[in-house]
Amino acid sequence: MATATPTSVILPTQGWSDASEEIAAQLEPADELLVVCDDTAPAVVDRIDDYDDSVRLVIADDPEGCSGKANAIAAGMEAAEHDRLVWTDDDFHHPPDWLARLRADYDRHGPTSELPVFVGQDPLAAALEPLYALSGTVAVFLADIPWAGSLVFERADLDDEAAFLEALRQTISDDGLLMEHVDFTTVKRTRHVETGGSIRETLETQVRFTQIVYRHDPTGTATQAAFGAGLAAGCLLFPLPALALVTLLVAGVYATFGIRRWTFFAAYPVAIAAIPLLVYGLARRSFVWGGRRYRWHDKFDVTVEPE
To answer: What is the CATH number of domain 7-306?
Structure first.
């Protein structure tokens, strides 16, 4: 059997989690898991003591001019010992074959990303699941957009790693920036990610998602606006046929991507609400993410404030 390529798994987190346990159990002898926190987390230190040097704590410090996530990824990449890198998040289940499948994906496709399926944890987030399925799952798959929650690439895939890390520490979206530097293959394999938790959290997430697309793909935002406006107009002008067609379309998307949720029934009202939500996301001057408020003035101009 061929020896697995040594891999550094970078996990930004605020503490030890089920994901930490799941990933640590999948490491090959030469691999490492970097648990990246803003500062020293005693709970993480205590748990890392249960492992050998394959699991390490990396202190990223507070971000200045970028998101906490981007800052953590940059710190993790600088601390990583290996050329093959896996980025992941702690908000979804990592089954026992998760890391092995990413390794095989890279050997087959090169840089590879899995797909998120966002599952709402409050009434508004649940109602918006059809929108998440279309923009966060289908569009990501069709356009081969990387999702930082689960992806693999190698340092050599970056033209200039130092410049990439410098840019990462000046922006919000880690995967949005990576998309501009590395060509990915997005495989049709989904991970269910909880989102929301309260109406306010869902609205803040909507602003963040909207502005990420706007900053990194303004043409995509314009296309989304045009399509959304046409769809909303059709729903209002021909309500009964549109209700049936839109619901069936989203039900088909759910079936195609293995999403077993009743929320496809919300597709019709969400289609009407999509444009107001887009306008709201673009009009907001700031948003809250992970306990910090971000003002995203330009792609590489970010102000970070306490929430």
So the answer is: 3.90.550.10
Euclidean distance between CA atoms 81 and 221, whole angstroms: 38
The answer to whether the beta carbons of residues 186 and 113 sit under 8 Å apart is yes
The CA distances from residue 40 to 56, 59, 67, 123, 178, in Å, are: 12, 6, 18, 35, 27
Main-chain dihedrals φ then ψ at residue 34, nearest 5 degrees: -105, 110
The secondary structure element, H or E, covering residue 56 is strand 55-59
- The residue that leads in pLDDT, 208 or 220, is 208
Domain locations along the chain: 7-306
Q: What is the DSSP letter of 285?
A: S
Closest to 7 (Cα-Cα) out of 122, 119, 134, 100: 100
Amino acid code (one letter) for 254? Y
pLDDT tops 80 at residue 1? no
End-to-end CA distance of the chain: 51
- Distance CA(76)–CA(176), nearest Å, equals 17
Which two structure tokens, joined as six digits, stand for 169? 């520490």
Residue length of the chain? 307
What separation in angstroms does the CA of 115 have from each of 48, 189, 258?
29, 6, 12
Q: pLDDT per residue over 274-293, tens digit each?
A: 999 999 999 999 999 999 99
Cβ–Cβ under 8 Å, residues 303 and 294: yes
Q: Are 69 and 38 in contact (CB under 8 A)?
A: no
Name the helix (H) or strand (E) containing 190: strand 185-195
Neighbours of 126 (CB within 10 A): 17
SS3 (DSSP) at 258: coil
Output the furthest CA–CA distance in the chain (Å, rounded). 64
And the tokens for 221?
């935002």
